[in-house]
Amino acid sequence: MKPIFAALLGLFFIATSCGDGASTISTYRPDSVGNINSLQIVAPEALWNGDVGEVIRQHFAAPADGLPQDEPIYSMVQMKPASFTDFAQRYRLFLHVTLSDSSNVSIKSNSFAKPQVGAFITAPTEAELVELINENKERIKAVFYESEIKEKQKRIKLSLKKLDTLQQDFGVSLKVPTAYRKAHGSKDYYWLRKALEAGTTNIFIYEVPLATIGKDSTIADIITMRNTIGADLLPVEDDSRFITEAAYSPFLFSSELDGKPTYITKGTWEITDAYMAGPFVNYAVRDEANERWLIIEGFTYAPSDKKRDLQFELEAIIKSAKIN
Length: 324
What we know:
Low-confidence stretches: 1-25
Oligomer: single chain
Number of domains: 2
Signal peptide: 1-22
CATH class of the largest domain: Alpha Beta
Largest sheet: 8 strands, antiparallel
CATH superfamily of the largest domain: Mog1/PsbP, alpha/beta/alpha sandwich
Number of helices: 7
Keywords: Signal
CATH architecture of the largest domain: 3-Layer(aba) Sandwich
Protein name: DUF4837 family protein
Shape: elongated
Radius of gyration: 24 Å
Strand content: 25-35%
CATH topology of the largest domain: Protein Transport Mog1p, Chain A
Distance between the termini: 65 Å
Helix content: 25-40%
Organism: Rasiella rasia
């Protein structure tokens, strides 16, 4: 009986010690897979080719904000529910839409892999599915976005650059990949650049007085700030200037960064008198303790590349900020 007892005891130990130590063997989850901003759509062909698929594409493949050319928020791939098994269930983001007797919307974490976020939507009719998607699109996109930012930040942390004077000069720390180099560092501004095959991505940091941006003229004040203070700081050849492209009004959002009120502006920059332009994302952080707006901007120059994921990396870096 002793060998049998030992075997049973071993099986019990395995079953109770998998995962984090307190979970059972049934809660084990493999690592998730998928590129950043890739979304798996799980839906029958009939739904995907009809109104349900159209409303999914309308919301989740809409053009990302602030890019010079249209690029979708998510790169989507559709599959039938019967094919959503085994390895296919390991995609980090998925939207599962099917007909059912009851209407329900649920967002679940780590259902089949980790980290993973899946949104499940069911309804008795296609019209009701469309209604549920319309009603819940912003909530689902917000959860997907935060999940992808965390995933990108996790990848960035694998190889971090030491920023020597950023904390000292601006009272802020950032988690930045080692692929970036310091182009300039002083009390006036801090500039980090990463070389691409043809172009660069950039982080640009400076500060301005609180009176620079007002509540009643926010977007105009931010554009003026970029076109004067920011343009004066960033070195450009000859007499050209780094400004906000006048032809397109930037997108403006209210948010928080490290617990501080923040304006996020997304738009397109250009160099006057030169054929150079690209997207930018500008975080203006209201830092009342230090009587300033802390400006952290990410911008890309990559004329031959798609820019969605390049800008997303810059935003993930900015959102890692810790401000004294």
